[in-house]
Design goal:
Blueprint: H1 5-19, E1 40-47, E2 52-60, E3 66-73, E4 78-85, E5 118-124, E6 129-136, H2 141-144, E7 151-155, E8 171-176
Antiparallel strand pairs: 1-2, 1-8, 2-3, 3-6, 4-5, 4-7, 7-8
Length: 184
């Protein structure tokens, strides 16, 4: 891990720039991993009121899988479960926010806690800032960027990896993954 310190700093700058109406230009200079699919994907993460809370940047690993970096600003302090969800839709309307994103990304049919989309928890500091970096060896960008897409979802509570998948609470933030550069 720790391949993303510059990316997390960049994502923080992007979040701060987007949330204050600024803009940021980025030039990729790293070598492209040897994959048959996309080399990178990203998402702008919004809360239920449509306010930008963060960004997610996914980068393909040379031997398969992805590194996922998330930076967030403005969530309640504490731990929040983070997942890749199976559908690229983030509608906050309805009885429960962001149910349009479907369930956790789980192509192998594993139990909760072993889903490919189970990314653990992001810890929000007292000042509202957080970052998370995870190597997800079974998450491939070509699968996430398929016809129905995928989303990054942040939940209200920590994910305790309970088999029933109920510990992480409501969906409080969501971003649709795309191979385009994130913009708000």
């Amino acid at each position: 891990m720790h391949r993303f310190p510059a990316v997390v700093s960049l994502a923080t700058a992007l979040v701060l720039g987007v949330s204050t109406g600024g803009s940021l230009a980025v030039n990729a200079q790293d070598a492209t991993p040897s994959t048959d699919g996309p080399a990178a994907a990203g998402a702008v993460i919004y809360d239920t009121d449509g306010q930008v809370l963060g960004v997610a940047i996914l980068s393909a690993l040379p031997d398969g899988g992805s590194t996922i970096g998330i930076t967030a600003l403005g969530l309640e302090p504490g731990e929040h479960g983070v997942h890749v969800h199976e559908t690229g839709a983030c509608d906050p309307e309805g009885e429960k926010a962001f149910t349009s994103a479907g369930g956790h990304y789980n192509p192998s049919g594993a139990e909760h806690g072993a889903h490919a989309g189970d990314l653990g928890n992001i810890t929000i500091a007292a000042d509202g800032l957080a970052s998370l970096e995870v190597d997800a060896e079974t998450v491939t960008l070509s699968e996430l960027l398929d016809a129905d897409g995928a989303a990054i979802v942040i939940h209200a509570d920590p994910d305790l990896n309970d088999p029933e998948g109920k510990s992480f609470g409501a969906r409080v933030a969501c971003g649709v993954l795309t191979s385009e550069a994130p913009s708000a």
